[in-house]
Amino acid sequence: MVAPPPVLPRPFPDGDPPVTATDQPSTPPRPEAKSPAADSERDGDLVPFRQALKTWFTISLQTFGGPAGQIAVMQRALVEEKRWIGQQRFNHALSYCMLLPGPEAQQLAVYTGWLLNGTRGGLAAGVLFVLPGVVALLALSALYVAFGSTVAVTGLFAGLAPAVVAIVAQAVWRVGRRSLTHPLLVGVAVASFVALALFDAPFPAVIVVAALAGWLIGRYVPHALKPAGSGAVDDGPPPLIPDGALHAERPSARRALRIVAIGLVLWAAPVAAVAVLTGTGSVFTTQGLYFSGTAVVTFGGAYAVLAYVAQQAVQTYGWLGAGEMARGLALAETTPGPLIMVVQFVAFLGAYRDPGTLDPWAAALLGALLTTWVTFVPCFLFIFLGAPYIERLRGNRRIAAALSGITAAVVGVIANLALYFAEHTLFTDVRAWSTGPLHLAVPNVATLRPAALGIALIAVLLIFRLRWSVLRTLGVCATIGLAAAFAGVPGV
Predict the structure, then answer these.
(1) Residue 228 banded pLDDT, cuts 50, 70, 90
(2) Which family would the database say this protein is a member of (predicted)?
């Protein structure tokens, strides 16, 4: 029986760090261990909090392209460049987040922030992860309401969307290369992709089967689950948080009850406030209750719940039209942050058109911010409540093997999202086709958008060949889209 992983002190004691500052010259030096009364020890920071804030803000500005791009950005910054967290530790956290309802990339940021800087680190990472997207989507929603489909706005989106296709393709490659370390794991990823893309399998079923496959692989072919951080896949210096160390915060019933109580109060208080101030039948109360419900059923990411949201928002509540729902998704696709942020656009339009006694613009802002609040507060609750337990489960071989299977399935899930996004970006008409158990989304080749394809190929060249950064690539492609729109290029 293998002994459980050692508990990681916070901060590391003198003379016993997993690496030294000289071991990793590319990584900013860690704070020196201090006396028990020192601030760093009291706060439990493994990296200086200001440095962590700067890093999370930088990451937040690059979280384009949905969960694939967001996970890849964190992978590159935290695992490869900063060396703050090991690959297996990163994969383990991601596997847990994939099991939860809500945006897995944002929850992964909360988890990693908690590992590095405790509760305040998780709060900072989670808030900064969505803040640029909230601000950007508010501005774009206002522009949409005020100006509609102007040439400038259309051209901007025409350049950004194809660039995101290339960014997502890079993300699939990078995440897969790091996580799929054995042919059996590649098989799990491929099977997950096929189940989702060709057979429209329910996401929870895919995750359950992947967990079972991981458990079987761990039982009968244990060497297949060799850590991704070994060998040639990752030959960098040891990470700040080793793969084998545990977080020091221990789970307890008292802690769990405290987190649940605080989380539920924070979640429900704004909805209760608008119900009292605007009435139980107001659009704000309706949106608060409705999106509180969707926040706990969004298993599999935004796409898994978008059909349900679209049906209810368009047909039941009449907050926006079907075409506007598609435009809202395009806005969410081309702004930083989780794709589920599209619900903010839905709430903005719904409240603007049914403001009650408020000014329409004030109503739109209130509806959008309330919806954002009830959508993301549960994410913090799930992580702070479950992460200490998940940390302890890392010492269990069977659980670790099952999560390895889920990690492999994640690659297939992201690849399926990448295919979906590429089809709906490069073609104006994508039709559903089914026969027997097969359910396919087939693009109409006659509706190929040459301008979008050209920009996507340019983005592929910039990212894969010239190794440009995400932000630089997006800037160039946005400029091309604007120029094409003003030049009257067809299909823009």
Answers:
(1) very low
(2) Belongs to the chromate ion transporter (CHR) (TC 2.A.51) family.
pTM > 0.85: no
pLDDT tens column, 415-427:
887 787 788 788 8
Burial class (CB in 10 A: 0-12, 13-18, 19+), 283: buried
What average pLDDT does the chain have?
80
What's the rounded Cα separation, in Å, for the pair 60 and 131?
8
> By mean pLDDT, which of 76-90, 373-387, 412-426, 460-474 is the weakest?
412-426
CA distance 355 to 259: 35
**Cα separation, 141 vs 364, whole angstroms:** 9
Question: Cα(185)–Cα(401) distance, rounded to whole angstroms?
Answer: 11
Query: How far is 416 from 410, CA to CA, in rounded Å?
Result: 10
The string of pLDDT tens digits covering residues 127-181 is 999 999 899 899 989 988 887 667 777 787 778 778 877 877 776 787 788 778 8
Could you give the C-alpha distances from 174 to 48, 66, 79, 122, 179, in angstroms and in order?
A: 28, 15, 12, 25, 9
Give the rounded percent of residues in the chain with a pLDDT score beyond 90: 33
Summarize pLDDT for 114-129 with one digit per residue, the tens.
Answer: 999 999 999 999 999 9
- Counting Cα atoms < 13 Å in the Cβ hemisphere of 352 gives 19
